[in-house]
Design a protein that fits this description.
single chain; alpha+beta; three-stranded antiparallel sheet; two-stranded antiparallel sheet; about 35% helix
Length: about 200
């Protein structure tokens, strides 16, 4: 039971979009429903906001399904779980700390392209980090269907600076929910990183 946009457990009412039949958290889809002719956040299909229908089955399931906090063990409905997780002191102490897939101790060359901040390909707004670019484009350019080059992908060693994304907003929401430099060794190719990830998962 995960929202199509946030991929998180539903904590509010779920909404079905017609005719795309995709399901979103009500809080995630609320900004779209305020527009006269909104686009589906995932496929960009135009839908009638008046035909967005509450999914009462999911709503009921979220409120009736019980789960236990991994920190304190307290049982509660999934509807209350995320709110509890943000305030549970025992949970924050037991949460594993994330670490890069591979060590990044190699010296930093002087000619490395800027992979920390990016320019909006629609309006040219500069100095946006990855998360800020995602928020900006969703807020300011949700209805822009112009094909543009992804500024994040294009600066990567494997990126193609001439490739234009047909659905840039969807690409941002699916591919750039985290910072690449946290988990990626820019000097390694995809096969090497996959091999290292599999090796580490088998050793744990």
């Amino acid at each position: 039971m995960a929202g199509t946009t946030c991929e998180g457990t539903f904590i509010t009412s779920a909404s079905d979009l017609l005719p795309s039949r995709k399901m979103f958290c009500s809080s995630c889809i609320a900004p779209c429903l305020q527009l006269a002719s909104p686009n589906c956040p995932l496929c960009r299909e135009v839908f009638d906001p008046h035909k967005a229908k509450k999914n009462s089955a999911i709503d009921k399931q979220v409120n009736n399904t019980k789960g236990s906090c991994k920190g304190c063990g307290k049982k509660m409905s999934l509807a209350k779980m995320r709110s509890h997780n943000t305030s549970c002191s025992k949970l924050t102490k037991t949460m594993p700390k994330f670490s890069p897939v591979a060590p990044t101790s190699q010296p930093i060359p002087s000619n490395v392209p800027n992979r920390s901040t990016f320019m909006c390909p629609y309006c040219g707004l500069k100095n946006l980090d990855c998360s800020a670019l995602v928020r900006h484009c969703n807020d300011a350019h949700r209805d822009d269907n112009k094909q543009v080059v992804c500024p994040i992908c294009s600066c990567m060693p494997w990126g193609d600076p001439s490739f234009k994304s047909a659905n840039f907003i969807g690409h941002l929401n699916v591919r750039h929910k985290f910072e690449y430099d946290t988990y990626v060794d820019f000097e390694a190719d995809d096969d090497s990183m996959l091999e290292e990830a599999i090796r580490r998962s088998l050793s744990e």
